[in-house]
């Protein structure tokens, strides 16, 4: 299976590269003297007050997202994951990923339960686990660049703004269900005590990109023994829910908080590109190096999935996505 060279260094590299591009191409922007010389019909003057208000609103969204201690507490249905092998006629083995649904003629071959964490609160053993898994999954793809990458990833791993979802193997499939009722009501979304070892994690952050609040996936790493069982897809679906904060009291939809999920993927990592683009329906962002400057030599693309019109207009080619038009 292809490995994806996410995301740590690539994210830093992207931000540095993007910063220079924006500075160099701020033609017509508020900081560009030529902006003032444009005829009024060619521009919409955005008042300083409007800019400040928007910035304040975005900062508040990021602050609120960061303040939430445990995003899983409002998503009890996502606290565990079951993968079963379905045997319609006991001859063929067709795999389906299911969530908390047991079907006749199937057997569970893997269950996981999830917990959340913050970069500055990781225990020594969890830090070691993350470092080891990154090394196992990423040393090969990074090759001679790995020693430098590893140092950067170690720093990013423990940053205060780093948010995590951890996946633990669940030996007792029923353990997860018990945690979604009384445990969750008491605010504990982590698996019960008999949970098994860690099998993977997502490292994500709430950041501002193109002046919009977005969720940026820094790492998605699973141990090889649990890959291909639907857990990666399940975790990305959870990440998208965390970004949107769509699940709330009695299923009434609150407003979106983050306007998009962004992530970085190596061009050479065709498996990960397939996973994200074909299976998870991500698209290459208009802010990706190849879209901003076709002659660029960057080895990665920025992929995105947007959740509102403004983000769609900025990060994708769609001005208005039909999904936002209630069609
Ligand atoms: C890439 C990764 C996160 C995918 O998670 P996963 O649990 O293995 O993938 P899933 O089982 O959820 O697969 C979902 C779909 O994507 C497809 N897919 C997943 N990985 C794929 C790959 N490398 N090549 C082709 N297709 C792939 C699956 O076939 C599946 O398709 P289906 O829904 O039609 O059956 C995981 O394999 C992994 O952690 N790899 C090592 C670390 C890494 O490379 N991380 C990069 C991601 S940031």
Secondary-structure blueprint:
Layout: H1 8-24, H2 33-37, H3 48-67, E1 80-86, E2 94-98, E3 106-118, H4 124-142, H5 146-157, E4 163-170, H6 173-185, E5 195-209, E6 212-222, H7 231-244, E7 260-266, H8 270-279, E8 283-284, H9 289-292, E9 300-306, H10 309-315
Helix pairs in contact: 4-5
Explain this structure.
The protein has 327 residues and is α+β, with helices and mostly antiparallel strands. The protein has a single domain, classed as Gcn5-related N-acetyltransferase (GNAT) (Aminopeptidase, 3-Layer(aba) Sandwich), CATH 3.40.630. Helix content is 37%, strand content 23%. It is built from 10 helices and 9 strands. It has helices spanning 8-24, 33-37, 48-67, 124-142, 146-157, 173-185, 231-244, 270-279, 289-292, 309-315; strands at residues 80-86, 94-98, 106-118, 163-170, 195-209, 212-222, 260-266, 283-284, 300-306. Strands 2-1-3-4-5-6-7-9-8 form a 9-stranded mixed sheet, with helices on both faces. The chain starts with 7 loop residues before the first helix and ends in a 12-residue tail after the last helix. The model is unreliable at 1-8, 24-37, 89-102, 178-189, 247-251 and 319-327 (pLDDT under 50). The structure holds coenzyme A (COA). Coenzyme A (COA) binds at residues 1-4, 6, 137, 220-222, 227-233, 271-272, 274-275, 279. Belongs to the acetyltransferase family. NAA40 subfamily. One of its GO terms (cellular component) is cytoplasm. Pfam families: Acetyltransf_1 (PF00583).
